[in-house]
Amino acid sequence: MSQQHPVRSTGTPPPRPDASMSLLNNVMDHALDDGYAEASARRAAEGGGLPRTLRAKLGLAAGLVLAAAVVTVGAAEARISAPVVAKERQELIGRIEAETSAAEKLEQDVEKIRAEVGERQRKALEQHGGDQAELVALLSGATPVHGPGVKLVVDDAKGTDEGGGGPRESSGFSDTGRVRDRDMQRVVNGLWESGAEAVAINGQRLTSLSAIRAAGDAILVDNKPLVPPYTVLAVGDGQRLSTAFQDSADGQYLHALQENFGIRTSISAETDVRLPAAPSLIVRTAEPRGAGGAKPTGRATADTGKGTS
Fold first, then answer.
1. For residue 192, what are the CA distances in angstroms to 133, 139, 148, 237, 279?
2. Average pLDDT over residues 50-67
């Protein structure tokens, strides 16, 4: 009896160990894109993509030479123009410095001429002031003065804020603790009314034509800005002037500012205070008309009534 061979199974082959990484296998097996590989092969078959004809080679060489020439010319121009630019800049700086020096010299000349004009005006006032020339010169601020008087210091409140608000905002104040132009107006007018013969604020002499105004947060006296603390010097009978001012309505106003808004003030009688002459003086004369509009027959000095607006 013949022996029958066993029949072997024809089942599926065993799976690959890396079967779970099919995407990675596909990337590794086909690293080069098919279209790119085809184009690369065609270019290699045609000669590697480089120009093969003499005309193409000459064109490529000309393009390279032109690019190199452009770069070389640009670098040369930049190197040549650098000293020129530096020279022009230095010349411009020199012109600015020269014009600045000229402007400063003109300002000095203006101040010198202004001082000369003021001196001549003061001399004219003293010469044509009549019997009361000394009094007129004093009231008009034409001459420096010294003598007994008072020293009044007015300063902003401690820790004054830059912001707005407060009960005085409706009256044009941006901060309740700041000294304002109208405060100084009342102080100066109060001193005049209390018997002061001459007044100055921070060394700025006041006359009957002086104006105290505001520009933002700054106080201007005759268009010159002042900074706190404001030191007011007044010539007069020191103790009497101090008492009269503190008892006046303007003195009470200043006291109310101190009590309600923290503005700092101090007043003291001084045995000798010195006030400079007014920096600028306007001399005016008036000529009275005769009866029926006749021509002027005399001359009189301008009104020297005190007061500050």
1. 20, 11, 15, 12, 20
2. 74
The helix/strand/coil state of 151 is strand
How far apart CA 265 and CA 154 sit, in angstroms, is 5
pLDDT tens digits, one per residue of 238-261: 899 999 999 999 999 999 999 888
Contact of 125 with 142, CB cutoff 8 Å: yes
- CA pair distance 221, 90, nearest whole angstrom: 42
Runs of H (alpha helix) within 30-162? 34-46, 54-127, 133-140
Q: Residue 130 forms beta bridges with which residues?
A: none
Residue 152 tokens, joined: 């009044």
pTM for this entry:
0.52
In sequence order, what are the residues at sequence separation of 6 or more whose Cβ sits closer than 8 angstroms to the Cβ of residue 254? 154, 183, 186, 187, 190, 263, 265
β-pairing verdict for 218-221 and 204-205: unpaired
